[in-house]
Design brief:
By secondary structure, the chain is of the alpha/beta class. The protein has 18 helices and 13 strands. The protein starts with a helix and ends in a 7-residue tail after the last helix.
């Protein structure tokens, strides 16, 4: 029903961001896009929309009766050689919001409707112009803010991840066909079964490992897509806000010598060597707080810690460790990625390495001075070392062999479970029917990733997150 509903409608939307600009693009897609627009486009050379060469721009006026709304460049992408697979026309207009509103209003009154979020890409998927992972990659590419996230999204859009899933599915389909031949001709030992159960088990284990590796890549894929959350914590007046300003290279946080100056979390994005990161300056943690505002700030610090991908613990190197430092260690010791930044290295240091190892066992530590901007580059490198993919893993991710959405990861985990159960069933020939069922389950799970198996609820969940016009 969804496909028929979309096919019968002609949709229009602004494809460029709303705001003042030199140019803006209006997209129109659908069976009736040519009849609707033909009434309003007056071409400079006297031609008509039907005769405009495909994928070549032509100058025209968008005119309602005798009123010209704008001078536009018309580009006609004829079906099926268009983004949506339908007749798609782009009007490159001047960036006047008034003119854009008027044109869209005219189109909506004459047979087109305003597109839903992601509807152009949804039509592309339904018309087999791309699979579901490529459709998701369109949104990821639009929202990518750093080099690594852009490279991963572009690789997915080019189909590298889809091809890997397809290879695994084809291998499993071949196995399933062989098993079903055996089931259909169980009384005929000469039936053309190519693989023994032991051989099937080996193949299942190989494909299961590939799937597991892809599922595990979500650890980095998620960070590239969503960015990393880094909390800066410590007791009051150790230089957390100064460190934030150093990392951002701007005066984002207020810095004073008065303890408790930061009462709330301050969040700011930055680029960590190609990965989007969110730095969070938190309220200082100390005991015996009576100020209710400061207490709320400390509670928000604890919440920020819970969702952090990494934590920078800041200590004052010009004084000995205190019980408050120990309390902070108790809060962060179970986090996977923690770095100790010993600040105020420009002053006399009263902490030695032995004390650091006693107070913060097995923790990476770096001496810094936020005031003098010393050690900051080393701290950035340590963050990158702990958070960014390296070597072969980095190359795999940048080539598209990484999962960037929880939906994809869950489907891979389901397929992995099916194949593990199938492998266990290879011990007995009497279990071949159950083995076939597990293979079908794995194939369905992998089919959900690329859109071979799909529901309307799934399409709604994915495409509702898109912007209108894409």
């Amino acid at each position: 029903m969804q496909g028929a509903y979309l096919e019968n409608d002609t949709i229009a939307a602004l494809a460029t961001p709303i705001g003042v600009g030199a140019l803006a693009i209006i997209r129109i897609s659908g069976h009736n896009s040519v009849p609707i627009l033909s009434s309003f486009l007056k071409f400079s050379n006297g031609s008509s929309l039907e005769t405009v060469p495909a994928q070549k721009a032509a100058l025209a006026y968008f005119q309602v009766e005798k009123t010209i709304l704008d001078q536009v460049m018309v580009t006609f992408f004829r079906a099926p050689h268009s983004y949506t697979g339908e007749n798609l026309i782009e009007l490159t207009c001047h960036g006047s919001l008034a003119a854009l509103r008027e044109i869209l209003n005219v189109l909506s009154k004459n047979g087109a409707r305003l597109a839903e979020p992601g509807e152009f890409t949804q039509r592309a998927f339904l018309n087999n112009k791309m699979d579901l992972t490529q459709a998701e990659a369109v949104a990821d590419l639009i929202h990518s803010q750093t080099e690594l996230s852009q490279r991963l999204a572009l690789a997915h859009l080019q189909g590298s991840f889809s091809k890997e899933i397809s290879k695994i599915r084809n291998k499993l389909l071949e196995l399933l066909a062989q098993i079903e031949v055996g089931l259909d001709h169980s009384d005929d030992p000469t039936a053309g079964v190519l693989f023994s159960l032991q051989e099937i088990k080996i193949i299942l284990e190989e494909e299961s490992k590939k799937i597991k590796r892809l599922a595990d890549s979500f650890k980095f894929g998620r960070l590239l897509r969503e960015g990393v959350h880094i909390s800066i914590v410590g007791k009051p007046n150790v230089g957390k806000s100064s460190l934030l300003n150093c990392l951002l290279k701007s005066e984002r946080s207020i810095v004073t010598h008065i303890p408790g100056t930061t009462r709330d979390t301050i969040e700011e994005g930055f680029d960590l060597f190609g990965m989007a990161a969110l730095l969070v300056d938190t309220a200082g943690i100390r005991q015996g707080v009576v100020d209710p505002v400061e207490q709320i700030g400390i509670e928000r610090t604890l919440k920020s810690l819970e969702k952090s991908d990494a934590v920078i613990v800041v200590c004052d190197g010009s004084e000995k460790f205190s019980l408050e430092d120990k309390k902070i260690w108790e809060l962060v010791k179970n986090k996977e990625k923690v770095i100790l930044a010993i600040n105020k290295n420009d002053l006399e240091t009263k902490i030695n390495k032995e004390e650091i190892n006693n107070f913060f066992p097995k923790l990476s530590f770096i001496f810094i001075s936020s005031l003098k901007n010393q050690g900051i580059e080393n701290l950035m490198q340590e963050l990158a070392s702990q958070l960014l993919p390296k070597g072969e893993i980095k190359e795999e991710i940048c080539s598209g062999m990484a999962v960037s959405s929880l939906r994809q990861k869950n489907a891979l985990c389901q397929a992995h479970e099916n194949l593990n159960r199938a492998s266990a069933l290879c011990r007995e020939s009497s279990m071949e029917e159950c083995l076939a069922m597990e293979l079908k389950g794995a194939l369905d799970a992998l089919g959900m990733i690329v859109g071979e198996v799909v529901t309307e609820d799934l399409l709604k969940e994915i495409f509702s997150k898109f912007c209108i016009g894409k």
